[in-house]
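Hi R.,

Here's the chain you asked about this morning:
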Amino acid sequence: MPLRTHTTTQDRPASLRSSRTWDTGVTSIAEARDAVAALLAQVRPAPGPRSAQDAQLVVSELVTNAAKHAPGPCALRLEVPAGGLVMRITVTDTSTDPPRRRPPDPGRVGGHGLHLVTMLCSDLEVTTLPRGKRVAATVPLTGERAG
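And the predicted structure, written out as tokens:
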């Protein structure tokens, strides 16, 4: 029988996590952006300003979509795994309709958010749940690091 070794969580740096729920729907997109900034402020080495802005833009788009298209409870979960190379942004809402990319139209106001999200993320996953959906986006934090 092969020897198995286990690394305890004390031997590894912990993931950083934050979460927020809105019982009656999202009331502040700025609150979601602030949560991203607060979590990224704990990452060492700190990600560069571009990575932080990208993560804030992605959370703004995902939470805005939930507020606009899924009235009712909504949840936001943020995680930066040990190593600090990505931020995982997960938004859960009450709509079972998946996000849809609209055809590009430079003359249209709005409707470009999902295009931005897919450009900025290394992964985007939508999971249908019994009472809604979960949208999980992975934003790279590998850009230029802060001084």
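Confidence is low (pLDDT under 50) at residues 1-11.

Let me know if you need anything else.
M.
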